[in-house]
């Protein structure tokens, strides 16, 4: 009632919000003041204003009410059983074969739960879970305060078309050489684009919206890029892409993590997806 009076702007408005009589709200506030031994409202004209003690109490009360609402939500989720739909945000560098295996395993026991798969880049997965747009994420970085678990290491290689002039140097390629060439970069998919693309070497860049587009441009000879090795197995085998002969640091790694938006409220479908994903990554040996 205290929160309702403040948020609604008065006793009458709070009564309408709570579907109670105004006298019931007034009585409730009086009882609160009597039980706590403090005055929470002071009447100024026709308006009730919070006292200093009331303001402190309200701040703490909001936290208590949020916890109570979360508890009620957990109870509803448990009573409802399987979720009708789950949303999974997965970084595009995650191996396709592992993703397909996870979806195949989930499909065998998901009770018809729908899956919305959000393909993301850099901060896209992180912001999806921060903004409550995803139940589970697979990401290279996690937002502060969110606990996750490492899934696997992704190996990156600096690659280009073998006809690129980087392969015509009569010596190993240096970082200074890369700075003079065009780098193909995949755009951060987060709403605020707060992620920093790893391994930016060149001032001259072409930025694209998807990893597949980047790989196609690389194969056509438009520049170089750091690409997950597992994503370009065919291009490496057929020779349309080759590792740039760097003097040092030709291979790099990034660790992908899995995190749940709320482990306590995760329903059976989210838990099944997480378990299937974890098992597949363990079987793969934690590297790709």
Give the amount of beta strand, in percent.
Answer: 15-25%
Distance between the termini: 55 Å
Largest sheet: 7 strands, mixed
Q: Any idea what the shape is? A: elongated
What Rg do the Cα atoms give? 27 Å
Which stretches of 5+ consecutive residues score pLDDT under 50? none
> What order do the SSEs take from the amino end to the carboxyl end, as H and E?
HHHEEHEHEHEEHEEHEHEEH
| Number of distinct beta strands | 11
The chain-level mean pLDDT equals: 89
Give your account of this protein's structure.
This protein is α/β, with parallel strands linked by helices and 288 residues long. 40% of the residues lie in helices and 22% in strands. The chain has helices spanning 2-8, 11-18, 22-36, 52-80, 96-107, 123-130, 175-179, 211-219, 233-238, 268-283, and strands at residues 41-44, 47-50, 85-91, 114-120, 136-139, 149-160, 183-186, 205-208, 224-228, 242-243, 251-260. The strands form three sheets. Strands 3, 4, 5, 6, 9, 10 and 11 form a seven-stranded mixed sheet that branches. It has a two-stranded antiparallel sheet with strand order 1-2. Strands 7-8 form a two-stranded parallel ribbon. Helix 1 crosses helix 2 (11-18), helix 2 packs across helix 3 (22-36) and helix 5 (96-107) packs across helix 10 (268-283). The radius of gyration is 27 Å and the shape is elongated. The model has no long low-confidence stretch (mean pLDDT 89).
Describe the protein's topology.
Blueprint: H1 2-8, H2 11-18, H3 22-36, E1 41-44, E2 47-50, H4 52-80, E3 85-91, H5 96-107, E4 114-120, H6 123-130, E5 136-139, E6 149-160, H7 175-179, E7 183-186, E8 205-208, H8 211-219, E9 224-228, H9 233-238, E10 242-243, E11 251-260, H10 268-283
Helix pairs in contact: 1-2, 2-3, 5-10
């Amino acid at each position: 009632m205290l929160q309702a009076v403040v948020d609604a702007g008065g006793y009458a408005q709070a009564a309408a919000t709570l579907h109670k009589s105004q006298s019931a709200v007034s009585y409730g506030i009086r009882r609160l003041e009597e039980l706590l031994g403090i005055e929470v409202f002071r009447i100024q004209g026709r308006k009730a204003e919070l006292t200093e003690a009331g303001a402190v109490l309200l701040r703490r009360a909001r936290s208590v009410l949020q916890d109570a609402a979360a508890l009620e939500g957990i109870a509803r989720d448990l009573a409802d059983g399987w979720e009708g739909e789950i949303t999974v945000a997965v970084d595009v560098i995650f191996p396709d074969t592992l993703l397909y295996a996870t979806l195949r395993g989930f499909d065998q026991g998901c009770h018809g739960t729908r899956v919305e798969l959000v393909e993301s880049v850099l901060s896209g997965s992180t912001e999806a879970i921060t903004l409550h747009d995803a139940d589970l994420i697979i990401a290279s970085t996690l937002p502060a305060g969110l606990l996750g678990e490492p899934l696997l290491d992704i190996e990156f290689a600096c690659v280009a078309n073998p006809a690129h002039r980087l392969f015509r140097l009569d010596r190993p390629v240096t970082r200074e050489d890369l700075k003079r060439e065009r780098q193909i970069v995949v755009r951060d998919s987060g709403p605020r684009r707060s992620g920093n693309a790893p391994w930016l070497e060149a001032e001259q860049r072409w930025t694209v919206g998807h990893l597949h587009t980047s790989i196609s441009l690389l194969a056509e000879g438009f520049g170089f890029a750091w690409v997950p090795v597992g994503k370009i197995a065919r291009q490496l085998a057929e020779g349309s892409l080759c590792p740039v002969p760097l003097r040092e640091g030709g291979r790099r790694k990034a660790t992908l993590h899995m995190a749940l938006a709320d482990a306590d409220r995760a329903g059976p479908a989210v838990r099944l997806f997480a378990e299937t994903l974890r098992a597949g990554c363990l079987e793969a040996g934690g590297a790709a």
